[in-house]
Amino acid sequence: MPHPPTLIDDAAATDGWPRATVGVLFGRERQPSARRTYDRYGRSNRPHGARRLTQERCNAGKVRWLAAWTALALLMLVLHKLAWAPPDSLEDGLSALSELPGVKSAANAAHLLLGPFWVVCNVLTKDWGVYNFWLSALACLLASGVVLLVVRRAVSWRASKLRNHAGDSSEERISRRRFLVDSPLLGGAALLAAVGGHSAAIAPYSIRLRRYRVPIHDLPESFDGLRAIFIADTHLGPRVPAAYIRDVIATALSLKPDLALLGGDYVHAGTRYIKPAAAMFRPLVEAGVPVVGVLGNHDWYNSRGLVRTFLEKTGVHMVDNARVFLDAQSRRIVAQPPSSGICIAGVGDFLCDVVDADRALAGVPSGMPRVLLSHNPDVAELPTIAGRSGVGGGQRRIDLMLSGHTHGGQIGLPFIGPLYVPGNNGTKYAGGFVQGPAFPVIVSRGVGMSICPIRFCVPPELVEVKFTRA
Question: 3-state DSSP: the chain helix, strand, coil percent, rounded to 5?
């Protein structure tokens, strides 16, 4: 005896926002249709015209999906090229667009999605590929496709959850099911958007000021209370806008420091941003503040020493494996040891240069206070620095070392701390005041960003050090 036809009503399973909004975009909408019947073999008795209409809707949905994929990929590619391939001069048109408010924050968000592709590219070719147009286009296509696929799967999951109870036509129960299904989806999406947006667009530019008081033996009486501002890791480039660094320098000037010390990594990489990065510190020089600095590892990447040249032209005293002195009477930078003052020395970058403390501290009177600049705090652990001097064999005097490089790890968790800190000593030199093997070290968490273009629970910072007589 033939089985009676089974009635299926699509209306209850197709109400709600997926059909009206996101579902339309991906062609997943299920419009209320006439009541259909199926025989025992699952064959529909729907007229041929209705099936053709369904096929047309499916094709239209695929077109909309491809259009959305193309639009998102183009948007990501435009943001990426604005940030990562500007002309050499900030005055040129494309660079002016990349320096508009919000452009680099949006590009940083896109770069997070592109991150896995760049890692794979670097592993396979030993090159990140961020400046290659075709690799960038391929990365944007893949990343945008993944994003839309995740959204589509979320929409399909919601529709399936509602469809499982399509036979229950109670309006109250339908509303309850929608609430139970939509709440975790919307809540999770809102939380992810809030955390991601804050980490990419707000936290990286919310500069903090950290103050330290450091007692120094033999400090001249006129230097008691001397205040030095320490600025590290500005990283002008694809991730950090010029306007933000100008604001940081303006904040530093507002503190009216007696001395400005720079910790390196003024540019992200290459030569595109060297000239404007050096010009950022001109307001400090023009205000009459003595400015002394060293280079960081990013300043060496493909730059061939040009960063030092432009910084010196700006008026910054560069002390990589060298030293200068701050005269206690004139409060000016001098090349030879004064009768009273402090020595400000520096060493080359730990990763890309030579660390030569003997050369940096040669000829410094033993009774004169010494402040050492090193971009990388791992220098404090070197036997040639923490141990005995190679000249004369005596204990080398260093009263304080100032470093950057680590950025505090950039990403940290409450009660846990940074997830990863670059260097050879774990989280010891992540940031703050650290007692090294032979002398104290102050590590700045930096102004800018590198590698991962976000900050979470690790805000950028300026450092102010007040020297007092011990």
Answer: 45, 15, 40
